[in-house]
Amino acid sequence: MRCEGGDTQVTIVGIVTPCEWDGEDRIRSFAVHSWDEQQVIIENRGRGRQLERVLRRKVRVTGRVTTSEEGRKTMVLDRFETLADDDS
Known about the structure:
By secondary structure, the chain is mainly β. It has a single domain, classed as CATH 2.40.50.140. The protein has strands at about 10-20, 25-35, 40, 60-65, 75-80. Strands 1-2-3-5-4 form a five-stranded mixed barrel. The two termini are about 15 Å apart.
């Protein structure tokens, strides 16, 4: 996965997991964990809000990724699709 520099359009295959919760234990944001052990935080806006319905499922996500100075990768989601376990 290439994420250096500014915004980079990437496609990642991985599992959707919760990432942050609010004070009432509701999910605030999600992450996609890829097979090469990368974690990308999905911004909770636009299509990113729809990931709750595919929680803990295999997905292919495409969007613009930025990397913070600390190395945290964040994606603004453009599209996603749910995959069968044998899809890549």
